[in-house]
């Protein structure tokens, strides 16, 4: 069945993978994005008659009213993401995440379905060896995490919605992000061959970007049985510390050296392990392992280099 889908922030890291997949399935997709990073990641979609693109802001009420008129599903990806960017623009972080969610909840009809990505960083600092489930109290410790937790509450309260608490995402995208932990560590392993790790025992969960896209498609296909609930989305065999992650990278790049520093700290203090059993019980299973993602990133970093301001 073909649906009319609005994806805000659809030209970002996740949207640039998800939107082409939705089009392949025959859905009609409208992307709303401000293209703040000058990305051209959706150019391949422009030849598809089912693709529409609007340059604008997800906080623009009149624009949203117009775009929502014929929409079946709304996937709000637009957000300022990452601790440095969120610290630099605290107002923008709140308005693009929490306030934009409230605006969507206000404007969308009860029949329109929302699938919102949040973050399992909302669990903050977990108990040692205790898996965080969707029933675990949320204790976000970053501005981004707090805004996402508030946005989730707003969207789930309206009903006819699903929230995905995403693990740390990794993998190549046409709109690449080098700042995500796996992407960052592999980049350093390829380019520098070493990394200094702060608080290497801190654990978190991981998920490949293509599996995140598959989770959204799974939710569209199974919406009625999944609606009005949050779901952790991650790799159940990838609850790893930074040191364990580094060891996995070293398996494919033997020259990679990683050292743990006794001085300094990570501004992102999250430390928890996560259960993904709830979404797995709906029939969703990730296809891409961490090993596959590392291999993919190594190939990707053979192609790209972050050297805009260096003579290398």
State the CATH topology of the domain at 4-173 and 206-236.
Answer: Rossmann fold
Number of strands: 14
Proper CATH architecture of the domain at 4-173 and 206-236: 3-Layer(aba) Sandwich
Rg of Cα set? 19 Å
Key traits:
312 residues, alpha/beta, Rossmann fold, 36% helix
Written account of the structure:
This protein has 312 residues and is of the alpha/beta class. β1, α1 and β2 form a beta-alpha-beta unit. A seven-stranded parallel sheet has the order 3-2-1-4-5-7-11, with helices on both faces. Strands 8-10-12 form a three-stranded mixed sheet. It is globular, with a radius of gyration of 19 Å. 36% of the residues lie in helices and 21% in strands.
In terms of topology, how is this protein built?
Elements (H helix, E strand, L loop, with lengths): L3 E5 L6 H10 L3 E6 L17 E5 L5 H7 L5 E4 L6 H6 L1 H18 L5 E7 L11 E2 L10 H15 L3 E6 L1 E3 L10 H11 L2 E5 L4 E6 H13 L1 H4 L2 E5 L5 E3 H11 L4 E5 L11 E2 L2 H4 L9 H14 L9
């Amino acid at each position: 069945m073909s649906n009319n889908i609005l994806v805000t922030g659809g030209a970002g890291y996740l949207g640039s993978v998800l939107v082409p997949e939705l089009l392949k399935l025959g859905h009609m997709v409208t992307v709303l994005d401000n293209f703040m990073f000058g990305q051209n990641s959706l150019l391949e979609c422009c030849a598809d008659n089912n693709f529409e693109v609007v340059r604008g802001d997800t906080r623009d009420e009149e624009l949203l009213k117009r775009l929502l008129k014929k929409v079946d599903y709304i996937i709000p990806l637009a957000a300022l993401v990452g601790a440095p960017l969120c610290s630099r623009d605290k107002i923008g972080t709140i308005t693009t995440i929490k306030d934009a969610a409230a605006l969507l909840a206000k404007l969308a009809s009860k029949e329109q379905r929302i699938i919102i990505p949040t973050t399992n960083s909302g669990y903050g600092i977990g108990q040692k060896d205790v898996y965080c489930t969707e029933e675990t109290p949320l204790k976000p410790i970053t501005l981004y995490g707090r805004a996402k937790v508030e946005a989730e509450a707003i969207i789930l309260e309206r009903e006819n919605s699903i929230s995905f608490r995403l693990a740390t995402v990794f993998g190549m995208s046409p709109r690449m992000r080098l700042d995500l932990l796996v992407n960052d560590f592999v980049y350093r392993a390829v380019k520098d061959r070493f990394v200094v790790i702060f608080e290497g025992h801190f654990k978190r969960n991981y998920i490949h970007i293509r599996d995140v896209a598959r989770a959204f498609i799974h939710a569209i296909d199974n919406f009625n049985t999944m609606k009005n609930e949050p779901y952790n989305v991650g790799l159940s065999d990838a609850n790893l510390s930074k040191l364990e992650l580094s060891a996995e990278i070293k398996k494919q790049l033997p020259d990679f050296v990683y050292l743990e520093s006794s001085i300094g700290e990570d501004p992102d203090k999250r430390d928890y392990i996560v259960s993904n059993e709830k979404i797995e019980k709906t029939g969703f299973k990730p296809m891409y392992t961490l090993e596959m993602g590392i291999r993919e990133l190594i190939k990707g970093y053979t192609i790209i280099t972050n050297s805009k301001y260096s003579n290398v």
